[in-house]
Specification:
The structure is a homodimer. The first copy, chain A, has ten helices and no strands. The first copy, chain A, is mostly helical. Chains A, B: Pfam families: TetR_C_11, TetR_N.
Chain lengths: ~210, ~210
């Protein structure tokens, strides 16, 4: 199956969006996404087969290819719908409060079985991981876009210096949680999240605008 | 093979340390460690067999069991000798300079094939990963101990507030590199390392003593 470009997948999405919500198309969509994530939990991305997803969802595999294009299109849709297009983090009124909410959201994500499986398959970007990165390159921008809003709010409130780069802050905030949980194998308790939130808050407020460093 | 406690492994080390360096014992030790890391690169930790290491090193497997106790003892020795007991980071005279040196050292580590393989096998601490964590729980303290020295120097120079927790800072500095490289698949270029160093510097200098948050 040739890898279809993102544009094609979006085009297919637009077509299905014309079908009324709650109808058969929506039900099939949910069933296929559930089946995709179950397969992902069990076998990971590299070993995932569209046939197995189709069988699990009780649909014909041509239905999947027609709607999602290919394996990358299918799995990226599942990821983005279930982890990428989350509700924006709660507006607590302060950057520190919003950071804690975001850290809790990242913690929740790390405990989702198919997220853990997928992250274990990631790694340096190599020829062997190109297929997985085609997927991750669609996922991360969606995930970052939703999270970015807390820094935009903080900028409006004057809690962050002008020129702050939200995506860099998102890496600074996500990295320690991934490291603590996946590399050190330590629990992500509230006390740790609080310490990370404080550190990010001070680092972000004290840092010069990121554009100076580029 | 029953898992021998760390104490036994250390005891065995002490015994071999009485043999003069550069002799047959030292040569066998180097050959076995090289073979262990090669096997690790190829098959990972879970699938690594002491038999295969012995064959590769051209030694009898009873030699390995006698000297390193078991698979955990063997692999942890290899890891600690080759990645844990590194020379302490260069003393550049400033915390920012030392941070950049440390970040470069972490970057080097992430590109070692057997490190990458091992990190991919890590993950949440579960019953299934207990054996790997027996190993990582020996490795990380050795690694952190060597790196901690740069924060001790900065404390002496008055560049960090009293009560700073070096191990927390090490997580804050390592996490973003792991995330950038292993999760996002982005290159670890010097510009990124500089930005991380600046952020950590400002965060660490502005943060209240970590003991307040415990």
């Amino acid at each position: 199956m040739a890898g279809g470009p993102l544009k094609d997948v979006e085009h297919l999405h637009t077509d299905t969006a014309t079908v009324r919500p709650g109808g058969r198309t929506a039900r099939v969509g949910e069933a296929v996404i559930d089946a995709t994530l179950s397969e992902l939990s069990e076998v990971g991305y590299a070993a995932l087969r569209v046939d197995a997803v189709a069988q699990r969802a009780g649909v014909n595999k041509t239905t999947i290819y027609r709607r999602w294009g290919n394996k990358v299109g299918l799995v990226s849709t599942a990821l983005i719908e279930r982890r990428g297009q989350l509700t924006p983090p709660a507006d607590t009124g302060s950057l520190r409060g919003d950071l804690v909410e975001l850290l809790k959201e990242i913690r929740l994500g790390l405990k989702v079985p198919w997220v853990a499986v997928l992250l274990r398959e990631a790694g340096p970007r190599t020829a062997a991981s190109a297929d997985l990165y085609e997927l991750l390159d669609m996922f991360w921008p969606a995930r970052f876009k939703v999270s970015r809003v807390i820094f935009e709010r903080a900028l409006e409130r004057g809690e962050l210096p002008a020129g702050t780069d939200p995506d860099f802050l998102l890496e600074m905030i996500s990295g320690p949680l991934y490291f603590h949980w996946l590399m050190l194998g330590h629990p992500l308790d509230d006390a740790f999240l609080d310490r990370v939130a404080d550190f990010i808050l001070h680092g972000a407020q004290a840092s010069p605008p990121s554009t100076d460093r580029r």
